[in-house]
Specification:
Strand content of chain B: 15-25%
Largest interface: A-B, 49 and 47 residues
Helix content of chain A: 25-40%
Shape of chain B: globular
Largest sheet of chain B: 2 strands, antiparallel
Distance between the termini of chain B: 23 Å
Order of helices and strands of chain B: HEHEEH
Structural class of chain B: alpha+beta
Order of helices and strands of chain A: HEHEHEEHHE
Oligomer: heterodimer
Helix content of chain B: 40-55%
Distance between the termini of chain A: 21 Å
Strand order of the largest sheet of chain A: 2-1-3-4
Largest sheet of chain A: 4 strands, mixed
Radius of gyration of chain A: 16 Å
Number of helices of chain B: 3
């Protein structure tokens, strides 16, 4: 059974119609062990989203087998989704992006596709001065 | 969450992770996630709730200063 309803699909197709460029969704999952069902669901969801736009491609890896690939993206747990545009900007989702986070997945795809963040000029100026790495983790729950 | 991802696109030095807390209980426990959204920056600064952009950025930059980096 599909995760996205017909109505979801229509809305996603419309939103992804605005993509300014190609997007690649790189999924890291695990087939065994606790939480593996989340990986199965995540991969299904990502594939259903990708079906809504010709500009979206999907790559699926196994966290424990494709270790080099996972390390390259800095992924150490699954399920994980890397949202890449012209390059890897550092957009990550850990866990199924359901509920409100689904909206953020679509938004993440749009900003990765355009490479143009919707932030104030002040913010852009402030982060331009960064000289070291910043890792932001936002914890959410499905709503 | 939206801000973290837009900031990631704005700077090559920023990575923005959206973590589903119930699927990663160990991680949620490590960072004492009691309410969501909870944001953790470089393991050194954390705050709860959705902050407006200027305050969100304040916290992000505070984490860097705390680590001894330049502003």
């Amino acid at each position: 059974m599909a995760i996205l309803t017909e109505r979801d699909r229509t809305a996603v197709t419309e939103e992804l119609g605005k993509l300014a460029g190609p997007v690649k969704l790189v999924v890291f999952g695990q087939q065994l062990g606790p939480g593996s069902e989340y990986s199965v669901e995540t991969e299904r969801l990502v594939r259903e989203v990708a079906e809504c736009s010709d500009r979206v491609s999907v790559e699926v890896y196994n966290l424990h087998i494709d270790r080099e690939k996972a390390a390259g993206y800095g992924i150490d747990r699954a399920p994980a989704i890397v949202v890449e545009g012209a390059r890897d900007y550092g957009i990550r989702f850990f866990g199924i992006p359901a509920g409100y986070e689904f909206t953020n997945l679509i938004d993440g795809m749009q900003v990765a596709a355009s490479g143009e963040p919707k932030l104030s000029p002040e913010t852009l100026e402030r982060v331009r001065g960064l000289t070291e790495r910043v890792h932001i983790q936002v914890f959410t729950t499905p709503t | 969450m939206r801000l973290a991802h837009h900031l990631a696109v704005a700077s090559d030095l920023i990575r923005g992770d959206c973590v589903e807390a119930t699927e990663f209980p160990e991680l949620a426990q490590r960072y004492s996630v009691m309410a969501v959204p909870k944001t953790v920056v470089n393991d050194s600064v954390s705050f709860e709730g959705a902050l407006p952009e200027p305050q969100f950025v304040d916290n992000v930059l505070r984490a860097v200063k705390k680590n001894g980096g330049a502003s």
